[in-house]
Predict the 3D structure of the following.
Amino acid sequence: MKRYIFYIFALIFMQDVMAQASGSLTGTQATINGLNYRLDEETQEATLDNGNCWDGTLSLPSVVNYNGKDYPVTRIGWLAFAFCETLTGIKIPGTIREILHYASYEGCKNPFLGCTNLESIEVDENNEWMCSVDGVLFNKDKTWLYAYPAGAQRSSYIIPDCVTTIAGDAFSYNLSLRSVIMPNSVEKEFFSTFNGCRNLETVSFSENLKSLGACSFDNCESIRVIDLPKSVSYFAESVFRWTHLDALVVRGTFPATLRSDTFYFVDDSMIIYAQPSEIPKFKKVFSGTVLPLEDYVDAVHAPQSSTINHDLSNHQYYDLSGRRLVTPPTRGLFIRDGKVVIK
């Protein structure tokens, strides 16, 4: 029930943000050929405004005409097509040089948030500021991943090894992805990176990722284990909200005090494995179990001979309540020879 109540408030909040974001754009409002624009009389340029929707595939125009004047289309609003579920494909012309952001959300570069049937984003090859690879939107030199289409059908995706930054909401609401691999070139990801990716099961993180942005895994209900590299030393708010994690493995250290809101709406049944020096910090903000990192055994990636097909004469199995198990478990969380194992 709490989740549904939150959805109602989130919808109200998003509507308010969209209204304010549109209000932050300047210029004459005009609807031309079914799309909303802001026309700047000083620069003689047009910005694609927020709040659009389109049925099917759309090729954005490079120039629009209004009252006899031509306006090159040079910018796209942050929420230009937000939650338009009928948009299936889009091509960005060579004139578009910027995706606007609202207020302090400078990391948001996905104007197609929640377009759950959008399978591909294409960019004119003559565009000097951005490009697309396999239907995914990047800046021109591919150091920023702007937007992964929410309707793309791939079950797995390997981020190109030139990417250093993943923009806010980049993968949000994609329901096909089950695994994502970050190369070690990635150093930063902004807020809500995987928000609403309900079928996402695994993320392999960059060994150079410094932090996790707010709501990065919001509603990623299929992920059971998140294993973070040593490089991660900061969590923003509500990073793991409404996940169903069995284990959060934190290999790094946190120079600053952990935020009190990091683990909002996280089930206390999750186990956090952390460096001994970090355990007191986690216990201050998380009411569930926090164990030393050395107690973590990853049964999925451990050598096969050490995880299966052993008889009870060599290993002792217990559930998390300390009850002896007659037969070796085939999945879930349990204790083998004093170590917590996840299968």
In short: The mean pLDDT is 87. DSSP finds two helices and 25 strands in the chain.
